[in-house]
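Quarterly update from the structural biology core.
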Amino acid sequence: MLRLNVTRVGFLMGISLLLASVIYFFAANWTGLGRADKILASAGIMVLFYGVSFIFSKMKIMLGHHSFLSAIFLVGGCISFGASVALLNQIYNAQADTYTLFLVWSIPALLMSMITRYNPFYILTYILVHLTLWQYFFPTSLHVFHTDKQLLLIGCLFTLINLILFVVTDVKWLKSTPLKVISFMMFHTSLLISSVSFDVSSYKLWLNTACVLAIAVGFYYFSRIRLNKLMLTLNALAVSAFSIFKFVELLSKYASTAFFIYGLVFVALLLTGNIWFFRYLNKLGSSSSDDGERKADEHNEAHKSMLAGRIVSRIVTILGVFIGSISLIGLVLLASEGTDIKPQHMLFAIALLFIIPVILLPRINATIRYTVLTIGYAAGMVSIVWMHSSILSLLFLIVTIAGWFSLNGRAQHIFTYSLINLNVSIILLQLFDSVHQSNSIIVLILALMNAIIYECHFLLREGPLKQHIRECGLLFTLLFMFWLTIMTDIFPYSYELFNILNFIVVTWLAFFFVRRGKVPEAAMSLVFWFVFIGLKYYDLFWTLLHKSITLALLGVIAIAITYIFAYRTHARAPEEAKANHILLRKSPIMIAIVILLQLGYIGYHAAANEILISNGTSVKLEIAPLDPRSLLQGDYVTLRYSISTPPQAVIAELESRPGLSRIKVVLRPDASGVYVFDRLYKHGDKLADKEIIIKGTVSGSHNIYYGIETFFVAEGTGIETEQNARYAYIRVSSNGDALLERLSLD
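Predicted structure, tokenized:
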């Protein structure tokens, strides 16, 4: 199973790198390719992904792996279609990240989902549909004003969509466990966000009631009607999230001594509830098996619920620490008002009262113990920074070290060891406050300190304590060594020295630990090695185009190495993976039709824009540019035209239009040939000579958007374009559609 997982991860990483290289290549907007070449390249890459998927589906050897590759490349083909649509918008300067991009992309993803019933297509469709809705209601390049009622309806729409999707997956009309979990979590998330987004009391009352009702129904349904430990655990996470949101919301309005006391009481109740819940969960039977699932499925479900339970328990503990720390610090600040006692001294004393008893009483429940201890550490760190006393900081360091030796578990030791390093850095900052280049010197001292600690682990007896101190010492040595490679010179050429030293040492450590079979240490060394190489490559010559080529090579290498590993180790895929072998055979004609539709859209979109460029009226507009970046489409200049601001006489009419409104504007040329705003077009108006109509959009503001506000440029040239461009040349069709052609100085 380990070999299978390594193989799966290797293939996924390789294909992900290939897809990333495609996106980066198009986002770089390389000027070496013309419009036609870019369109053919994007279509060719999409066909290549689908073609490779087809080839792997026909291979008989290593059936499970080839079927897996076939399915993943099929998904990759659908993703590359989205990159192609984004490229079309880039070529013809359509709005960046517009909702139409994600809408067009989501259609073939949805069709592929319906045909193949493959989970990655379900997830892709889910993401794209949500991006479509989000960009429609809150577009990146268009300011849309929404009233409270409209925002409430938008929130309810997202909530309802996820609720319906959850019900459909829960009753197994649609069989997709990942989609079921995601929709359940997004249902509670959207409902919770809506409940804290409005100041109107009537909305808040109903939305808070809906949150509580949804949580209560979830507990009843998954414990009494359809037993499912995983969903019960996620429902408990929803309770924790609701609690923390409401605490912060109440804190902003009712901060007082009594409130902070209630906050500490709430933390105690939260932790008690957490312990009670998981004890109750452990007493419940297995997850629901109403369809007669096999024991292996029940075991997998139990494993998932156990993993989710651990995650939720950690999250609840973190929330308890957050609320408890705020409450404790706030209580100290309020209690010290009007007294001679300094709040930082009181906070330090209380921190010790939290920490020392917990260290001396190891039999306290682990969750309560770690939460109280962490609250004490958080309060103590705030107090020693506040007091600026090296002696008290040293005392707190001793207490922290004592806590390290009294705790058990890798996570607890890493956390406490991090606090020790933070405490030492605070002491060093207090000692070297007036020294030149003190930050660099402190990082160097911390690197040497952790290296010494790592070497001293040989003095300890074999056991978990020795292993943990070795891992912590190595982790922080590598971290501070890496930190030195990005800091200014401590002495002449120290920057170059630390970079060379880091490369040599980390490379040697990686090979040393791999040869010795020490997995955690080897993994840490390799991670820091790749991070160092990536960062230095980025600093020196890391452009999107170079990144694309590098990622493509890494993707091919990753797939090749994984393929050889799978072949030589005979890592076999389970039977369910072999079911993917028939993915392309479930309905090959329907899949082929979807692929042809994708190619047809690319061809139609390109042809329609080329016709507009050839036949549209050329119009010159005055501009005022900005310079952002699109994730999918690269650098672009956001334009604001003189015609974007209508005359004062028109503003009142536009503001009276509710919500998002489509309009038509009549433009006329001035004496210099630059087109200016003349009037709003009304049905039946006759145009004078050289007047044209252009379509626009307005949303309760003074600005009109024409869909030509984005001009994509080659990577790194946005600032130059912003400084030099003064006019935009657009093409406008007879029905008012506009396309941005070029920018110019005159």
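The longest helix spans residues 295-335.
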